[in-house]
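Problem 12. The chain below contains 117 residues. Write out its predicted structure in token notation.
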Amino acid sequence: MKKASKVKTKPYNTLVVDTETVLAWGLPYDSDEAEGVKVLSDTITDTGRWSVHNRLIVEIKGKVYETSYSIGSTEYQDESPWQGDSTVEFIEVHEVEKTIKVWERILVEVPDKKGEQ
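Solution.
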């Protein structure tokens, strides 16, 4: 009987930066282009009762990375990005174009009712 072979996967390219440096770059809300940092995308991925979770795409010194952060969902929740984390992990990404199919409603032409009073 043949043994099943284990599939080896290559780990993602990651960049680990201390949180103080990330905040000094102005992330997640701003960029420090002098340091080679530029925000490309910031999207909400999930919401909860107390937090809003975001996916941040950022260019750092010519490479593009993603990371995530969460903030308080109202002014009463005291939660800031990467609060309590000593480091922030960025995973290298690249842009891929995808085509999707969706269902759309069909518009029906309504006859013109000219001449009716």
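Discussion. Residues 19-24 form the longest helix (6 residues). Students who got a different answer should revisit the alignment rule from Section 12.3.
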